[in-house]
Amino acid sequence: MQQIYSNFGITIIKQGEKYFMQYDSGEMVSTMKKIELSEREAKELQEQKDGNAVYEYMIKNLNDRI
Asked: 2-6 long-range contacts, Cβ below 8 Å, gap at least 24?
């Protein structure tokens, strides 16, 4: 497992050839969630310039998995 990115409340890790995003679900009790990403999604998330852009990207592109 290799951490390749950590910013704006998310961490992207690579395990073998797979990418995963870990984030705090933001509910009443802090719960870390982990979802699988494509390599393209991992790169696009890293390109976001601020926390709001990350949030918007997640809602637009990853909503079915969060």
From this structure: 4/42, 4/46, 5/42, 5/45, 5/46
